[in-house]
């Protein structure tokens, strides 16, 4: 355990680190990649260039310092990060260089304000926090590898087929090259792929939500092609998968991971997705139907229009076949054909009034996935409605994953 003096210093200086979190994050990654350039193969370079990874690091450091005497208070943050670390293969021996670099970044940014006493205190705190992560990640590695069909590291999968789901989204059906059993996943989890894109110096790693209910002898991921960002790093992997990877090709994946999973109780379920955020929620919907749960399920999806609407007919069919399932669609830019067919429920965005009109009770489990602004707006609406935060669950495709003052 940490001594009282260390705790006092860390908690007193955590707000200062928060104030300078972006600068510390930028300095940290610059130093880290100079010391260990091989880590370019691990960290998402797109998020680096957009500044998202740096912002996420700053938040995590500040939150850990603020709650240093009770890390359970930020358990969702720790669990989320640990799941990502397990998925990409972070190991215990990588923590020391990260700690040394973080302390150097704090010293560089804060200058004389970061006294030797403060740096020493944060060094102790980092060791304490790192031990918590290492212990949790060790447990995750052991559970993953020992489960039926589980595996260590990355395993090659054959693209069994590609299916176009919308103008932007394509599904990839994946079967193990070794033809052995695969680990089951929980609805809402993701697979992590590692690709070497021609012309790119380093490996790119991405997480993609599984879009089909567990229990098959294959996995399915559904990937949005980021066409509007073809000239920037954002679309590198999605375009590579869409345009280059064909049926019969091999891709290496780590075992399913993620803490965004269904709560098993009797409360009604409300699934709210925006754009490509439909993937984990559609998986959840299929899983709930497969389990023949009795509670009501409301599936609300928001996207531009029918051209960008993946799984539209699949969700509609599940609602038709199951009396406890209601499907609602919001188009913020419906086409003329959409307007003529009236095959959607609201033009515009999901708001509190729409939720109140279409969700019978706020005493439900709400699951959200979409862009950060989308989820932030929905969470604020739910909080205004009086939904307690423990009933609001979300998956973020961004490393800046803390919403609604969690």
Please, could you describe this protein's structure?
With 406 residues, this protein is of the alpha/beta class. It folds into three domains: 4-146, Globin-like (Orthogonal Bundle), CATH 1.10.490.10; 155-257, Translation factors (Elongation Factor Tu (Ef-tu), domain 3); 269-396, Rossmann fold, CATH 3.40.50.80. It is built from 13 helices and twelve strands. The protein has helices at residues 4-19, 21-35, 45-50, 52-66, 75-88, 95-110, 116-146, 236-243, 278-290, 312-321, 336-341, 352-358, 372-385, and strands spanning 155-164, 169-176, 190-195, 204-209, 219-224, 250-257, 269-274, 297-303, 325-331, 346-347, 365-370, 392-396. A six-stranded antiparallel β-sheet has the order 4-3-6-1-2-5. The chain has a six-stranded parallel β-sheet with strand order 10-9-8-7-11-12, with helices on both faces. Strand 7 (269-274), helix 9 and strand 8 (297-303) form a beta-alpha-beta unit. Helix 6 (95-110) packs antiparallel against helix 7 (116-146). The protein starts with a helix and ends in a 10-residue tail after the last strand. The relative contact order is 0.10.
Keywords:
single chain; 406 residues; alpha/beta; Globin-like; Elongation Factor Tu (Ef-tu), domain 3; Rossmann fold; 6-stranded antiparallel β-sheet; 13 helices; 42% helix; disordered C terminus; metal ion binding; transport; heme binding; Flavoprot_Pyr_Nucl_cyt_Rdtase
The CATH architecture of the largest domain is: Orthogonal Bundle
Question: Approximately what portion of the residues adopt beta-strand conformation?
Answer: 15-25%
Question: Which geometry do the CA atoms define?
Answer: globular
Low-confidence stretches: 228-232, 400-406
Mean pLDDT: 90
Active site: 95 (charge relay system), 137 (charge relay system)
Family: In the C-terminal section; belongs to the flavoprotein pyridine nucleotide cytochrome reductase family.
EC number: 1.14.12.17
Catalytic activity: 2 nitric oxide + NADH + 2 O2 = 2 nitrate + NAD(+) + H(+); 2 nitric oxide + NADPH + 2 O2 = 2 nitrate + NADP(+) + H(+)
């Amino acid at each position: 355990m940490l001594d009282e003096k260390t705790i006092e210093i860390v908690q007193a200086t955590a707000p200062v680190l928060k104030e300078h979190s972006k600068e510390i994050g930028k300095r940290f990654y610059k130093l880290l990649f100079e010391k260990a350039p091989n880590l370019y193969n691990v960290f998402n370079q797109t998020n680096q260039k957009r500044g998202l990874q740096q912002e996420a690091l700053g938040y995590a450091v500040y939150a850990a310092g603020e709650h240093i005497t009770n890390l359970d208070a930020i358990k969702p943050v720790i669990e989320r990060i640990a799941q990502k670390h397990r998925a990409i293969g972070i190991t215990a021996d990588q923590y020391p260089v990260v700690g040394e670099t973080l302390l150097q970044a704090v010293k560089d940014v804060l200058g004389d304000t970061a006294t030797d006493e403060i740096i020493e205190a944060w060094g102790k705190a980092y060791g304490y926090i790192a031990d918590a992560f290492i212990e949790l990640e060790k447990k995750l590695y052991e559970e993953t590898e020992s489960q039926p069909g589980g595996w260590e590291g990355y395993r090659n999968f054959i693209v069994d087929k590609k299916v176009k789901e919308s103008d932007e989204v394509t599904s990839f059906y994946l079967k193990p090259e070794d033809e052995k059993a695969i680990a089951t996943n929980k609805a809402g989890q993701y697979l992590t792929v590692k690709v070497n894109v021609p012309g790119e110096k380093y490996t790119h790693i991405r997480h993609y939500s599984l879009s089909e209910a567990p229990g098959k002898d294959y996995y399915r991921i559904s990937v949005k092609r980021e066409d509007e960002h073809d000239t920037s790093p954002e679309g590198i992997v999605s375009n590579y998968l869409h345009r280059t990877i064909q049926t019969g090709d091999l891709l290496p994946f780590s075992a399913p991971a993620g803490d965004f999973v269904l709560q098993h109780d009797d409360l009604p379920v409300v699934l709210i997705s925006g754009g490509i955020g439909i993937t984990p929620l559609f998986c959840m919907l299929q899983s709930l139907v497969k389990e023949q749960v009795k509670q009501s399920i409301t599936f609300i999806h928001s996207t531009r229009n029918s051209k960008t609407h993946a799984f539209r007919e699949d969700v509609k069919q599940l609602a038709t076949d199951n009396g406890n399932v209601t499907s609602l669609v919001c188009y913020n830019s419906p086409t003329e054909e959409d307007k003529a067919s009236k095959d959607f429920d609201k033009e515009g965005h999901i708001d509190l009034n729409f939720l109140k009109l279409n969700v019978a009770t706020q005493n439900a489990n709400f699951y959200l996935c979409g862009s950060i602004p989308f989820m932030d707006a929905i969470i604020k609406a739910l909080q205004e409605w009086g939904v307690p935060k423990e009933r609001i669950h979300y998956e973020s495709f961004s490393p800046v994953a803390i919403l609604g003052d969690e």
